[in-house]
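Would you mind writing out the residues of a protein together with its fold in token form for me to study?
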Amino acid sequence: MKKRILSEKTVNQLTVDKMEQLKYLKIKNECLTRNEKGIFTNLATEFYILSLFARMGVNAHLTLGQKKSVDIVVEKNDSIITFDVKGLRGKTLWPLDNFVKIRNNHYIILVSFVDKIFDLSLLPEIYVVPSKDVKKLMYQNPKKSRKGINLSLIREESNTLKYLNNWKFLSKQL
């Protein structure tokens, strides 16, 4: 197969086209309400993780509902593994107000788009955390009105090594 080399003009046009696309998406984003932004982030995140499971050859199912603590269900060898998927547009906190209790075979998948949700060429950061580890990572604000996991905490070296793209321990169960 012969390699095709793009001309400088073609590369420049592709760059301009990408910049125009990003500008359009950012303008569209500014027109969305805060609630709409959250809904689109959550949907994008859940379907992104679902696509990763498909790429792994895992038969995964998306659950439906407004207030749910299980987003994706995987059935394997007569056992069920559940996942709560949390998306973060920015760099602060994944809300976990609906996290109730530790369950066997339940994981929290934290996805951060690091303020670049509209740049489709960048991959998000993904942290896979067993539910038994969530409590030790949990932050609660002083008013006790919000709880979740801070991106800065999970990025600490010991946590990053343990949870970043941590699909290996899942493959033992899947």
